[in-house]
Structure formats: C-alpha cells, structure tokens
Amino acid sequence: MATISHIVHPTDFSDASSAAFVHALKIALTAKATLTILHVAASHANDEWEQLPQVRKLLADWGLLSPHDPASAMTEKLGLTVRKVELEPQSPASGVMQYLSRHTADLIVLATEGRQGVARWLRGSIAERLARESRSVTLFVPAKARGFIDPRRGEVHLKRVLIPIDHEPPPAAPRARIMAFAQLVAGIDAEERLLHVGGDAPVIPQPGAPRRQLPVAVGQGDAVEAIVAAANDWSADLIGMPTAGHHGFLDVLRGSTTERVLRQAPCPLLAVPIAY
Questions:
Q1: Residue 152: left (phi > 0), alpha (psi -120 to 50), or beta?
Q2: CATH code, domain carrying 78
Q3: What confidence tens digit (pLDDT) does each residue in 68-125 have?
Q4: Is the pTM of this model over 0.85?
Q5: CA distances from 108 to 11, 125, 185, 225, 255 (A)
Q6: With contact defined as beta carbons under 8 Å apart, do 27 and 107 qualify?
Q7: 150 within a domain of the structure (yes/no)
Q8: 8 Å CB contact between 163 and 240
Q9: Which of 159-163, 212-216, 260-264 has the lowest mean pLDDT?
Q10: Domain count for the chain
C-alpha cells in the first residue's frame, strides 16, 4: 500500500479500544490522512462521545500541538483531518458495514480483547463479513498486547514484521504491501521474517534481484501455535497476514484460525486481502 488517505476506526469507547485509537491516530498523522472515528449510538439520547480521548489533547501530549491551538491546527499544522461519525442506534456491526459500503477505507483499525478475540460488539458472522467484504486492509490491535505506538509519546516502535505465508494465497504481492505499510508507518525499512508452516515453502523472488529468493523459515505442527511462538520468540512488532476468503490456514477473517491468532497474538496483526 503506497498511500493511506482514509482510515476508519470503529469504536465503542471502551478501555479495550483505546490502544486501537492511538494506533489509528498516529498512522493517520504519519500518512496525513483522514481519520474517521465511527460509533453506533446506543440510544437516541447519546452522550458517549465524552468518553473518547480528546484528539487535540493527545497531540499536545505528543508535543505536536499547543494545548491552546484551535481545531483547525490539526489540518493546518499537521495535515491531519479527524471526523467523528455517529450512526443511528442499530446493530453495531451492521452499522459499520453499511458505512463501509458507502465510504471507501484504505485501512480499518479494530480493537481486539485478548482471549475474547474481536471486540464483543463486533463479534459473530457480521463481524467476519465486515473485514472480509470491505476488502480493506485491517489492523487488529490487541488491548493488552505490546503495540507499536507509544501512547504517551506517540513514538513508533515498528522494527520487526513477521509474515506467515503459504502457497495460497500467492504471497509475493501481499508481502510487499505489508512491508510498504511498515515503512510508511515507521519511516524505516523494518526487518522481516517470512514463516511457512508445513512442507515445502513458497518461493518469493527478492525485490530488485529476481534470481534470488527471500529466505523463509519453515515451522512444523499447528499453524497458529507456530505463528504465535515465532512472534513471541522473535519479539515481533507486527504480524502481517495475507488473506483470501474461507480457505487456507492464513484465513484470519473467519473461523478458528482468526479467533486463535487474535486471542494469542502478542502484537498487532495486519490482514491484507489478496485482491487489495
């Protein structure tokens, strides 16, 4: 992904969503993108927006704005646009899906809740469709895991990217997009580690040297356990996973693989649709 112009962050304003909010804001700031904070009202008499961390205060804490700067300073000084969109009371996942069907998002940033996987309010078959049918790159941020954005200073710590790969979907293009995302966010070329679980590993030509192959580590046993173990052992800052619908062990958008990876992931997980 060469550029990110629109980021959508669905939130229920819970503590579990705060880490995802910080990541969404910092990525939008770095990309000079529009950040849409999306919330489905619990009732027509709704004052839940007061629970959202103040964007300008957070930017001031990061040393990017003065506490007395007007709202216009976000765009004028930082090139950042933040929109708060509240949808009518309805099923949260349905509301988010309807919004995404009308507004293109380059990146969706979602909170996950440890052993519960995807946040409670987005769980179930509709949540699976949300990430799958939007065809957008989705960043899942575990609430209690080690994120790559320091919430106090806004600093980026994204140096190691673990990319599990398989023969299907073909991994070369999504691998390039994952590393481009890391470079965009971190401003440096992060170190990558390709991991294949099972038999013979896929062959990925080295960029700029097509006769050479990128090294691929090969693991055995349960795919999810191998992915999580590799992420822990290597202290990965990001897990980047190509996705292609309802088949293959890399399908992080539906079924047990999704839940198991998200429950155990020690760091954020970036899901990149093969057709992106």
A1: alpha
A2: 3.40.50.620
A3: 888 888 899 999 999 988 887 766 677 787 888 888 899 999 888 755 545 555 555 5
A4: yes
A5: 11, 18, 15, 26, 20
A6: yes
A7: no
A8: yes
A9: 260-264
A10: 2
The three-class DSSP label of residue 169 is coil
Beta strands in the chain (DSSP E): 6-10, 34-40, 81-87, 107-112, 137-142, 160-164, 191-197, 205-206, 209-213, 216-219, 238-243, 269-273
121 and 210 co-located in one domain: no
Residue 192 CB contacts under 8 Å (≥ 6 apart), including other chains: 160, 161, 162, 163, 175, 179, 182
When mean pLDDT is compared across 7-21, 22-36, 239-253, the lowest value belongs to 239-253
Please state the separation of Cα 19 from the chain's center in Å. 11
Query: Which domain range does residue 45 map to?
Result: 6-142
Say if 149 falls within a structural domain. Answer: no
Domain co-membership, 177 together with 135 = no
Q: Is there a domain that residue 155 lies in? A: no
**Cβ distance 70 to 23 under 8 Å?**
no
Asked whether residue 123 is domain-assigned, the answer is yes
Give residues with Cβ within 8 angstroms of 92, minimum separation 6: 10, 12, 40, 121, 122
CA atoms within 13 A on the CB side of 161: 24
145, 268 Cβ separation under 8 angstroms = yes
| Residues 240, 181 contacting (CB under 8 angstroms) | yes
81 forms beta bridges with 34
Angstrom distance (rounded) from CA 26 to CA 28: 5
